[in-house]
Protein: Sulfate/molybdate ABC transporter ATP-binding protein
Organism: Sinomonas puerhi
Amino acid sequence: MSFLTVDAGLAARGVHLAVGVAEGETVAVMGPNGAGKSTLFGLCAGLLRPDSGRVALDGRVLADARSTWIPPHRRGVALLAQEPLLFPHLSVLENVAFAPRAAGASRATARTAAEYWLGEVDAADLASRRPAQLSGGQAQRVAIARALAAEPRVLLLDEPFAALDVAAAPALRRLLRRVLTGRTALVVTHEPLDAHLLADRVVVLEGGRVAESGPTAELLERPRSPFAAGLAGLNFLRGRAVVWGPTARTTPPGHLRVVGLGEVSGTVPDGADTPAAGEEAIAVFRPADVSVFRPESAPHGSPRNAWAAAVRELEPRGAQVRVHCDAGSHVIVADLTPAAAAELDLGPDVAVVLMAKAAAVSVYAA
């Protein structure tokens, strides 16, 4: 049973979200801009009021479309924004003590709580400083301590690393991994690394709805939406299953008919759902498993998938070049070495043939 339940919407934003979070679970919320992530946080924190459905915490309705409305400070929900938003006129200790003081704690109790949480985030030595004397990473640690000092039942973190430089982010990730253990939390992020390190589960939002949800490793390994596939760095094709072997994993492999691309051959990975003939299914494969040929040199009679395509762009990626190609109405990407890309003389609009072995393509029910 869900500890935090959101089944609510805002018609003006075209959003209706159904999200449940178990007690002690950390959920990563991911999706493109405008998908509804900020709306979800606003509904939970009490910054937005739903015009349909309701938001509930541990069986207590926080807000609904009728008359129930619990103000933000009485919800037991703490929101940590991208920016630390510390009070500039207060010391670090006073900033952290503000949360329990606002909840009615005595000055001495609030100070004790502030000292404890500053120690928990490795910022005890910053207690006497003012926010202007802190680095970005230090300020974010203090903001986390302030949020935790309120003893929230649910913690909302809105892209907690967005305002940090690259050097400060790894330490803060380790810190959050430690302090979020056993806490009920929602974390908005665009980084797969954050989802893997911090979250038990991922919820992907698209177009104001939940597109998919599942355990982090499973969802990023077998995505069911183009956005999640992009996060996992996988090519993503959706079509319908047309032929399957006698069992799910025997030769011949399964085939997927994709509009504008033809048939795609692949195999069903262990633990995945096998699609029935005619059922909607998904194929995913790594860019590293895609070979690129000029049409005149492409091998013939091979059991591999082969698609005619045109190069859209070349993207340098360290020791590799990512080749984005238009194949029918789909985009397929391949990773090559710079030497291979140069030998093929690739550039925009150059015709190519893309190939991928069936064993490298995972096919499963959508």
Q: What stands out?
A: The chain has three domains: 4-221, 234-285, 287-357. The CA atoms of residues 220 and 304 lie 25 Å apart. The radius of gyration is 25 Å.
